[in-house]
What we know:
Layout: H1 13-22, E1 26-30, H2 34-46, E2 51-56, H3 57-63, H4 65-82, E3 88-95, H5 98-106, E4 111-114, H6 121-137, E5 141-146, E6 151-153, E7 156-158, H7 166-176, E8 180-183, E9 200-201, E10 207-208, H8 214-223, E11 229-231, H9 239-247, H10 260-267, E12 271-276, H11 278-294, H12 301-323
Parallel strand pairs: 1-2, 1-12, 2-3, 3-4, 4-5, 5-8, 8-11, 11-12
Antiparallel strand pairs: 6-7, 9-10
Helix pairs in contact: 2-4, 2-12, 3-4, 5-6, 7-8, 9-11, 11-12
Bound molecules: glyceraldehyde-3-phosphate (G3H), 1,3-dihydroxyacetonephosphate (13P) and zinc ion (ZN).
Amino acid sequence: MVSYKELGLVNSKELFKKAVDGGYAIPAFNFNNMEQLQAIVSACVETKSPVILQVSSGARKYANQTLLRYMAQGAVQYAKELGYEIPIVLHLDHGDSFELCNDCIESGFSSVMIDGSHLPYEENIALTRKVVEYAHQHDVTVEGELGVLAGIEDDVQAEHHTYTEPDEVVDFVNRTGVDSLAISIGTSHGAFKFTPEQCTRNEDGVLVPPPLRFDILEEIEKRIPGFPIVLHGSSSVPSQYVEIINKYGGKLNDSIGIPEEQLRRAAKSAVCKINIDSDGRLAMTAAVREVFATKPAEFDPRKYLGPAREELKKLYMHKTENVLGSAGRA
Length: 330
Ligand code: G3H
Ligand code: 13P
Ligand code: ZN
């Protein structure tokens, strides 16, 4: 058993309390390789933002779970070397079983998500409760989920949103003992959140998707005041990256995300953790494609992964400073 405390990591409890009180959200950025991790840590150190390093089960398979854990431990030291100690959480994203959550808890994760959102309500409660009981013995925080996001969630694809039912949240939170709750209010995973047909054009001709269901969020906040809420599927799919990708041979049609103003609004409420993965994938891909297209003689990976890392860092700094409001809170 390796405790996250020995690795210099923290759980999310204190961070969430401060974020809810302070009206901002902690960034939860997914990573599965070194350049992503370097970009996340250097951006968060430079903007003095706390950060949640998020690892999906797919990332564990891709990068090797042991390597990822040592990388997170390295991230703590790297932040110190960069000159400012920021709180770093290592979090399992979309854990789908008790065994996986346990494995992570025992190998140094400070926080886990058990995603029983696709299960019948009582089964979701039973599974989540089981994970919480074990996690809390080790001072590890647990995120549960109620409601189903449309789109792709690991191997599960849902056609439509099943919005979180505000009347269920008190019962769910009390009976499971979770530390935070992921909800469904109109976000979805991936780079294709809305079709152009679902959007309207604003006065500048930009396609604007239907707004998030802030009415549901408000109802939830009334039922569980001050309780930490999590938003998954919160990439904004910046059009500049989609344009660069398509300009240099990519084919990403109709990629529309969550407008940043809506995330800013959510971050001011009890939403205290905002998950962003796809935007990082787009930033990296745009930078790599540009190098491949404009400098075809380059074949040193540092010459294309370096610019990708720079672009990622810019993106993450922008998120902490201008979207989530977590800059300066570490
Ligand atoms: O919510 C899913 C995250 O974006 C992780 O994606 O399962 O492809 O690693 P992944
Ligand atoms: P995006 O696909 O919108 O980046 O969402 C990521 C996420 O929710 C990870 O759990
Ligand atoms: Zn997610």
